């Protein structure tokens, strides 16, 4: 897994401890445990969670999911499945993002 620096790049001066936790713990320790769960599966779980919350980080994590091998077809199925649980407006928005990222 490539080293994450988004926390330090975006918040390093403003919130250095949060940036450290983001880059070193969340991505450095948790995401890097590929012997426990693949990056592909971690991405599916993360996108699902973010979609249900309707947060802006969904777009970035959809790109990470694509880079981690989540196919367009898998993303479409994920969003379709969640439409009945997360709400129709959130899934419409998620489809807009997925079209942008996968096309």
From TrEMBL:
Residues 16-100 form the Carboxymuconolactone decarboxylase-like domain. InterPro entries: 4CMD/NDH-1_regulator, AhpD-like, CMD-like. GO terms for molecular function: peroxiredoxin activity. It comes from the Bacteria. Gene3D superfamilies: AhpD-like. This is Gamma-carboxymuconolactone decarboxylase subunit-like protein.
